């Protein structure tokens, strides 16, 4: 595996899940695989879970880790040819990125959507610059349009908890006071579509996701109807994607907050969320504290998904 | 040892001191004990000595280390149930802390007194949240009311330098331009009270410490009288503890600055301070540069105390 | 080797170059030499290349690394005796630096010229404080007047690419919008003077470097004449050194920008720059993208020079 930015990069999902199970059994099984291999983690956006879990995964494999925090404003790389660089931009990407690649074996990049220009965001400009120019395998630690380490951990978690071969999984929009990127819901949809689960997306009108991520999923605007007989409820907020509303919060309708009333129509579903979660906006205290809430095991699986991904990238060197 | 926040956590002080001496002889004696164990160091307050010495200690044991700097203002965790989280606080402690615990084996926390609310400070709210919710062994890298890694290093140092079985140790308040927490003096008193040393505390009226830390120590308001025949002089500033004066600087009386005049009445005492120290406020140049000053060996013992503590926490896993 | 701040510290340059070649062949050849050795990297100025390459070099040798970022403004150490420290400076260097030395085996320091006081800069006050008071081997990660890890990497690169025993190497000033220190050109001159290359410096009037660094180099004010038959063109901007102009940008004459016209008079020279580089100020797109541009291999050799230096410092312990 030469890069990891989306579900396709894993190729055979079943074998990846088997590898995850094997590593979860003994997360230090490959603890000398990463000897004398250096991971460079580059953060354009701050991170808690992703940083800790990826650093832990690298340790599991015996890698060295270098963390680089780049203030988003500070990444003023010139990208054009012919520009006389006498202004704010001190370096051209054609020097900056290959140089970073010199001092490491694998690069992780976190770079969120900025909600200024949908095309810029959805073209994954920064992530793709690293893939094109660094000369090293690159993986996403959440990019503008996808968060594949999260989605892989979500899938591992569903596989661990599912009681039927083809569970019904419902991803429900829920309210939030701030405008959040679509990376997590896009990515979750992409990964669910790669399984044979019964996958349903529900959200208020206006929150339609990019059709290329929605794919074969069923979209149901009636939240309660969508949740009927669900085996897993995956709650998440996102800002609007469509047209001029791109990046906007259209409403904060708290009837969409996942409550016991919502869970009651499910098939005693498990509750999932990628965290951090705002209680009583996304989900009530009662639901997230219930026995059916698996948000902590889901977070813990971030270490497992990152270990599998790093292992495969090392093996490709 | 499942936590380390105060002297009681070490149980048998003599065996801990023996372990310290053994590690000082060969600080890499247990360098494979920490293999595949990850230490998460969480700083709510900045740190130089504690960060370096604890990270060095973890290296001595072969651990992996992840450092997390949390701006104090940024740690806005919701702690209540039922709150609709539509404001500044992005996460509830019931999710945030267990998640951090997922990605490590041991957690160190530094969180100072804030001097806004004495009860909040003295209840060690943040430290105790980590103990209660992280699911992992927690140790203090200086909390609101104690600094046990410092006190343990202080005790190791006294044991190394003492010339009699029961030395006279005098902790003296000294002036400082800013309001400093009571963590170091509280903790030093607690540790001295756990020995059979002759322990005396001296300070101006108004600087009385919490009686539960003063314990069986003798309090002497006359500094010169307190220092007579001392074997060790432990200088430290602290802000007032009592009543409405909590967290206030009551005076900066430089007659309390430890000078040669003060040292002259001692039994050729050693001079100690936890550092950083303001010269000619806390102590004169002449005293801190004298042969009797042991502030650098005392600082160096921070590596030893941290190695013992981490070793014991690893052994409990 | 007990310190590394200038070319003399390497003693025999030929044996250092042989060691570099040996390490480049297998950069993990000495990967257990640094076991249980801790490198403390102290940054008074921000860093990308130096930080990554030095951290990678330490990993190559199996060292532990602690990175300390010190905001330049924050390093308010008192240096005088007798001062009553009741102001902004919380610590005296006589305590602060020995304490840092307690928790590591080797110290790297980055501290740039501040352009406020030429004597202060050229006396390398901060670097020398660490050498004098830390008790540990110290190396420069770019100081006020030299950048020896860069110059060593430059020399390694020239040795790899040179086609004749005594190549002609031309260091050319080039325009830049900001005032840059002389550390890189001083240091490059010092290292070139330690070889038997034909070394020429060219710059506009007013940009004369400190004569002690210029040494036996030929200074030629006519840039085109200087470049004739050059085998290597080393471009770099620097601010004025002389007299009242110290630290000033005297002009931004873009006729000095290295272009194809300049390269045409050379002996098909290789183009070098320490990076980051401002295109079309220092050098045109065409030249830096040409086959003769070796800026990326030059940057990659930073890992090699740092590995040699750390190896020698470890061997001296």
Automatic annotation (TrEMBL), chains A, B, C:
Keywords: Amino-acid biosynthesis, Arginine biosynthesis, Transferase. N(2)-succinyl-L-ornithine binds at residues 142, 176, 236, 278. GO terms for biological process: citrulline biosynthetic process; L-arginine biosynthetic process via ornithine. GO terms for molecular function: amino acid binding; ornithine carbamoyltransferase activity. Residues 3-160 form the Aspartate/ornithine carbamoyltransferase carbamoyl-P binding domain. Residues 184-309 form the Aspartate/ornithine carbamoyltransferase Asp/Orn-binding domain. It catalyses: N(2)-succinyl-L-ornithine + carbamoyl phosphate = N(2)-succinyl-L-citrulline + phosphate + H(+). The keyword Iron-sulfur does not apply. It comes from the Bacteria. Carbamoyl phosphate binds at residues 47-50, 75, 110, 147-150, 274-275, 302. Belongs to the aspartate/ornithine carbamoyltransferase superfamily. SOTCase family. This is N-succinylornithine carbamoyltransferase. It comes from Bacteroides coprosuis DSM 18011. The lineage of its organism: Bacteria, Pseudomonadati, Bacteroidota, Bacteroidia, Bacteroidales. The gene is argF'.
């Amino acid at each position: 595996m030469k890069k990891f930015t989306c579900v396709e990069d894993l190729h055979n999902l079943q074998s990846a899940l088997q590898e995850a199970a094997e590593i979860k059994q003994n997360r230090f099984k490959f603890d000398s695989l990463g000897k004398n291999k250096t991971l460079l983690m580059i953060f354009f956006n701050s991170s808690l879970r992703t940083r800790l879990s990826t650093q832990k995964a690298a340790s599991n494999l015996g890698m060295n880790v270098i963390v680089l925090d780049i203030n988003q404003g500070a990444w003023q790389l010139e990208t054009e040819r012919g520009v006389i660089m006498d202004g704010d931009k001190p370096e051209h990407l054609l020097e900056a990125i290959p140089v970073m690649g010199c001092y490491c074996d694998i690069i992780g990049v976190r770079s969120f959507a900025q909600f200024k220009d949908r095309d810029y965001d959805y073209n994954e400009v920064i992530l793709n610059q690293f893939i094109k120019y660094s000369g090293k395998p690159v993986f996403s630690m959440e990019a503008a349009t996808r968060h594949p380490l999260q989605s892989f951990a979500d899938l591992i978690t569903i596989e661990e908890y599912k009681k039927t071969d083809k569970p019904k999984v419902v991803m429900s929009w829920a309210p939030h006071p701030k405008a959040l990127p679509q990376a997590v819901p896009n990515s979750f949809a992409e990964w669910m579509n790669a399984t044979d689960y019964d996958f349903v997306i529900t959200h208020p009108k206006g929150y339609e996701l990019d059709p290329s991520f929605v794919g074969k999923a069923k979209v149901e605007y009636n939240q309660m109807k969508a949740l009927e007989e669900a085996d897993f409820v995956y709650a998440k907020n996102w800002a609007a994607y469509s047209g001029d509303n791109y990046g906007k919060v259209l409403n904060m309708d708290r009837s969409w907050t996942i409550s016991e009333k919502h869970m009651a129509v499910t098939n005693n579903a498990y509750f999932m969320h990628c965290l951090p979660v705002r209680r009583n906006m996304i989900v009530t205290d009662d639901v997230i504290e219930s026995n059916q809430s698996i948000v902590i095991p889901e977070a813990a699986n971030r270490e497992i998904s990152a270990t599998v991904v790093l292992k495969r990238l090392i093996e490709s060197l």
